[in-house]
Amino acid sequence: MRLKAKLGLSSLAMIAMLTAPANRLYAASHREAPITALDHKADITDWFTFVSPEHPDRVVMILNVDPFLEPSNGPNYFPFDPNILYEMKVDNNRDGIEDLTFQFRFNTEIRAPGVFTGFVGSLLKIPPITALDGPGSEGFSLRQNYTVTMNVGSRKVDLAYGQKLYAVPSNVGPRTMPDYNALRAQGVYELPNGVRVFAGTVADPFFIDLGAAFDSLNFRMAAGGGVLTPAVDADDAHNYAPNTLAGFNVNSIVLELPITMLTSDGKTHPANDKNGVIGTYGTTSRLKVTVLRTPQDSGNANGNGNGNGQGEWAQVQRMGNPLINELIIGTGSKDRFSMDDPVNDSQFANFFLNPLLAQIFASINIPVPPAPRLDLLPLVQYTGPICPFCNEGDAGPIADLLRLNTGVPPTPFQSAKRLGLLASDASGFPNGRRPLDDVVDIAARAVAGILKNSATYGTRIGDGVNTSSAPLPATFPYVAPAYSGRDSAHAGPGQLGCTPQPQGICPVN
Amino acid sequence: MKTLPLFFATVFLAHAQTPAEIGIQKAQELIAKHPDHVAYYSGLAMAYARRARETSDVQFYTKADEVVDQALRISPDDFEALKVRTWLLLGRHEFAKAAKAAAELNKRVPDDITVYGYLADANAELGNYADAVKATQWMLDLRTGNVAGLTRAAYQRELHGDLSGAIDLMQMAYDATAFQESEDRAWLLTQIAHLHFLGGDLKQAENHAQAALELFPGYHYALGSLAQVRVAQGRFDDAVALLKQRYDAAPHAENLFALAEALDRAGRKTEAKTAFAEFEKKALAESTIADNANHELMAYYTDFAHQPEKSLEIGQAELARRHDVYTLDAYAWALAASGDYGRADTEIREALAVGVKDPKILQHAAAIEAKLKPESEESARP
Asked: b/e map of A352-383 (b: 16 or more CB within 10 Å)?
């Protein structure tokens, strides 16, 4: 009797499956996995880690989430989600497992519940918003504060030491926020121990011709059709194809810390010392429904507490290297990849070492090395060139971490190269990643084999989008202020945004 | 205006058919139009499997099997067809094979939560509860609040003794199920009734079972659930009537056993004897295949025929296939009936260690424990 009852259980499950859409489209790099396509707030758009150009003894980590924020999309704009745990994780002993975790939690307050919008100024005797707190903040109704906590083992440290930290809101427009940059500057916090932190809405620094890339690699002929001319390839300052992210905002958390807080021995190390190499990734998590509840959780249907007020979390997404989930991981594995830990990435080894994208390149006569692609291992293991003195025993497991040699001095942003390490700029991707690094072109070329042999496999693959549409600041928080809701525009095909093109109009073809 | 009667006729027709019947009809129409499109065959096979649940007629599994064979002839590696095949293995109670097939599919496409469901089902039936919980947790993590994951999580909570937690999840699943899915909702109500029954709340159990029958009249699972309540209420003749109705709709050996048991409780000994005899014959005929009524057959030999040695023999064969709490309980009870209380205690403790709070298992455990305590005044004859 029990068996037949169980059949019913299974059958119900199957029926529920059948009602789900059989095929989904995965349209954008910023929404790569099905689960995050459904959960924008938890969707990690980009993850950066680089040695601070302002303070070469510090490392900057940036976690960007919540893609394609249209700057004018009021009345609530784009708060962080208080139900999400945002984390930055650092492996400092090459075992693929995080040793340090920096956690961010947000809290929302509605200070003027009777007002129809979250942000108002110069109306109804409410002054313009010129401050995050105190006088000038009266119209800042939907306000978020946040905490930043460092976890080392079971030890937790409040990096703000009780200071109230406010997230910087989106740039609503000049009437509401007449000096947005000054307002935003108040959201840069200098914390004790040489730590700086910022959280808020910013101009999305990423740049890509997303429409062409996901139209089955239908790149614009005006930009070389996917293979750049030497002149275009050498131009780090202009775009020859529309940057799909132009004019869109994103939510950003930026943390700058002394290198000595990150390494396993609390010291800085020169570039030739493996102890100066770290691996990082960012995650978003939500409280989960647990199958089995502890006795302390009775009365809580979700079973998502552990009895001491601390919830259990289900990871929604992670990001180490850029474009891994977008371009490398198969669609049927993207969610599992997003939710699993880097240390378990050997299950995806075949995707890394025999990427489908390489096979696609080969099919259109771009030379690629044969599988297995051991030349791609530097992206997923501790080895040269990022960890030049790592021997076989230091490689660690296959794990998608953004590896950074903290001993490599930072190149000033003004002279940095978009192609990073490929252009002999040793402080650029894949040695960490800066917002200015053109990871689309770099990653595509890496997949095509440039790390193995640049002469044979060095095709100048590129989308023709070579720089961010918002000028990237060389100072903390290293991401540009949010686009104005009232006064912003996007740069689609046929629209302004590609300086070297006739009249600056981005090509359609 | 002329189209209005046609509209109503269509609506009436739609409501006259069950969800599975509609699925079968639609899939057959699509196959007729596109005989080489493999996905339609998988859809038809699943609709047949669903009809099997609606009617309890296992012939629909045979039909589903044939359709999957057709699908795999067109595309031998088709993922959806292989999923249906795995589901049918579960339907035939080939749990070890189903677990293996599901593990292979999971490796191929780790994001498919249906496959996690198969892993959960197969491992739960095999008694591999840690693996079942793990697979179920993946379902909930991958798609928070999905009905398939909630129902499986509820079953795990039930097995682990968290009845109120199981009810919470079943209720969440019910709330999330579409209005049109009448049989699904009736099934969920039946499960909630079952959980209330296990928890001793007969009123809630009765209400939910009756609600299921209102939603899906004559539903065989709900008839069984309501009969369970009637037995507990001492309304044995009412239970007999319900179980007769169920056996007419779903003439399976295990359903006949429940009817015979109720007849016996009702004092209708002659009818009970006839029913037990027919049950024994029927259950023995399928005892060596995977889809059997061996738990009920063991209970019959232990409690009614007083032939525990036969029960032990069946139990050993069943334990070679699986070590779930219900098999462990049936075997322990047979051991106790044969006087081997020490081994009975070992077996039933293994079941209790999972956390299960099924009243029957608890009663068996208490009786065995009493026999092992000479000073105890309690006695129970297994």
From this structure: bbebebbeebeeeebebbeeebebbbbbbbbb
The helix, strand and coil proportions of chain A, stated in percent and rounded to the nearest 5, come to 25, 25, 55
Query: Does the beta carbon of A221 lie under 8 angstroms from any beta carbon of chain B?
Result: no
**What is the model's pTM?**
0.79
Chain A CB contacts of B168 below 8 Å: 301
Query: Computed over its alpha carbons, how large is the radius of gyration of chain B?
Result: 22
- Whether residue A2 lies inside any domain: the answer is no
Best of A2, A6, A12 to substitute, by most chain B Cβ atoms within 10 angstroms, is A12
With an 8 Å Cβ cutoff, is A2 touching chain B? Answer: yes
- From the list A3, A290, A333, the residue facing B137 with the nearest CB is A290
Q: Do B144 and A7 touch (CB under 8 A)?
A: no
- Burial, A397: exposed, middle or buried (Cβ in 10 Å; 0-12, 13-18, 19+)? middle
- Residue A4 falls within a domain, yes or no? no
Condensed to tens digits (0 to 9), the pLDDT of residues A409-425 reads 999 999 999 999 999 99
Q: Which domain holds residue A359?
A: 11-497
Cross-chain residue pair A22–B39, CB shorter than 8 Å: yes
Which residues lie across from B3 on neighbouring strands?
Answer: none
User: What tokens appear for A497 in the block?
Assistant: 């945004």
Query: What's the structural domain count of chain A?
Result: 1
In this structure, is residue A306 part of a structural domain? yes
Nearest Cα neighbor of A197 from A102, A320, A99, A71 is: A102
Residue A94: is it exposed, middle or buried by C-beta count within 10 angstroms (0-12/13-18/19+)? buried
User: Residue A1: inside a domain, yes or no?
Assistant: no
- pLDDT tens-digit map of A120-142: 999 888 999 999 999 999 999 99
The torsion of the CA quartet A175, A179, A181, A185, rounded to 10 degrees, works out to -120
Neighbouring residues of B113: CB distance < 8 A, sequence distance ≥ 6: A17, B138, B139, B142, B143, B146, B148, B149
C-beta atoms of B91 and A314 within 8 A: no
What's the pLDDT tens digit per position in B230-263?
999 999 999 999 999 999 988 999 999 999 999 9
Helix (H) or strand (E) holding A202: strand A195-203
Report d(CA A208, CA A230) in Å as an integer.
19
Nearest to B300 by CA among B266, B252, B268, B260: B260
Residues 309-338 on A with a CB inside 8 Å of B are 314, 331-336
- In this structure, the dihedral spanned by the alpha carbons of residues B94, B98, B100 and B105, taken in order and rounded to 10 degrees, is 160
